[in-house]
Amino acid sequence: MPNDNQDESLSAYGAELIEPYPSLIESMRAVGYSLPAAIADIIDNSIAARATSVRINFHWKEEHSYFTLLDDGHGMNTDELVEALRPGTGNPLADRKAGDLGRFGLGLKTASFSQCRRLSVVSKKEGFPIDYRTWDLDYVETAKAWQILRYLSDAGLERLLDDKPGGTLIIWEKPDRIIYDQDRRLISEKKFLEFIRDTEEHLAMVFHRFIETGRISIRINGRTVEPWDPFLREIPGTQTFPAETLAGGEVKVIGYVLPYELKLSAELRKRAEGSNGWTAQQGFYIYRMDRMLVSGDWLRLFRKTEFARLARIMMDIEPSLDSAWQLDIRKSMAIPPRGFHDQLKTYAHRVRSAAIEVYRHRGKQKQRQSSGAGIEFAWIIEKQNGREIPKINGDHTLIRDVMDSLGPDKKKLRRLLSLLEMTLPLSVIAMSEVQQVDEPAAPAPEPGEDEVLDLMKAAYKKLKAEGLTRKKALERLYFIDPFPEYPHLVERLEE
Length: 495
Prior knowledge:
With 495 residues, the protein is an alpha+beta fold. 35% of the residues lie in helices and 17% in strands. It contains 16 helices and 15 strands. The chain has helices at 24-27, 35-48, 78-84, 107-113, 137-143, 176-179, 189-206, 208-212, 266-272, 338-369, 397-406, 410-422, 426-435, 449-465, 470-477, 487-494, and strands spanning 53-59, 66-71, 118-124, 131-136, 167-173, 217-220, 223-224, 239-240, 244-246, 251-257, 283-288, 291-297, 311-317, 379-384, 387-392. Helix 2 (35-48) packs across helix 7 (189-206) and helix 14 (449-465) packs across helix 15 (470-477). The termini are far apart. The model is unreliable at 98-105, 363-373 and 433-441 (pLDDT under 50).
């Protein structure tokens, strides 16, 4: 067996050059970018080029729609431009220059190809003439060669750089992944314009540190992108935890617990929940060189719950950890090595506990108002022959509601409940718990809030029918399973 550590040439083994087929470039389109993530990857290049201004425009012209991104960075001369269009221009293991947000040398190409079939780059570097090149996937397919063209479909576009000492213009044409739905039907202009909103929200989050500090200004179709800070640090009610460093300072974490949402103004509440809502936005926010990689994820250390929805943790990692943390091409995923799990879990547990206490405090207030009412669980535990057996609670408000509505047929419901109790797969549940001792369980699917709200309304109606006042019925909802985990929905009924 050859010794890989020997300093010897392998050329004696008959090395052969194998060039990729042109069709490989089509495979590069399937990396999995969303449109906002693809645009964010292009902006990474602008930031690396020391741009202070990025101007994005979506142009709707049905099947001839196109997209442009213009920055005022230092630009490229002809040789640099051609090299930038070469797939895989950088070694992901190589050291990066300060401020370089790249890693694989694929971002410009894969991000662009994921959205369109023609990518044109026009660039101007101080002291050099403007130049441009184009990748056209249809031409590559026809020519059966990895060839770029010195071509622009609209020669007037290069004039956008005339009044700048340097800068780069990115043009996406033939945007088949944007303007057609999965059935290859042309989307509506309204749907196209929704992409602007989605992109604005994503860029406001991913680059909020750059925007806040004035390092870059981003405009989309003339509208300035305002930064979105996930941690509400400017709000007095936000709890801040002490910063901790791991891995010799290469990882830094700071925890935040946001104020109870109904204590915020409607405007602040809307801003704090982000694009995905309060529950989805909880978790770790991972940054690399001030650029957000992950937004709102417990990294398989915990599952998302309603009670922890106010917990958010800022984490900064150094570029030297890219490989260990499995940073992907899209820069939208980072997986901490197992060696970090215990430390991250310990820190996150403290933050989550504080977030949960905010809701417990709300619950304690309601409990004092409702004369010491206890939790009304859907399942109760009975002891039989020394064993604990789960039973459905027939006194649960929603079960009583159904029982009372059935009249003589309530026996049928009792038989059904007995069947569910007798066939509950306890052995499967127990085995699942044993298997997950060392491996964190994947998040269980959460019920939809509309579904919970529908149950809540039914329980409220039953309590009212039993003679409780509106105030007492609403207070009681805080203590009927599963509603204690959805206090914000009870609050919605109270409004």
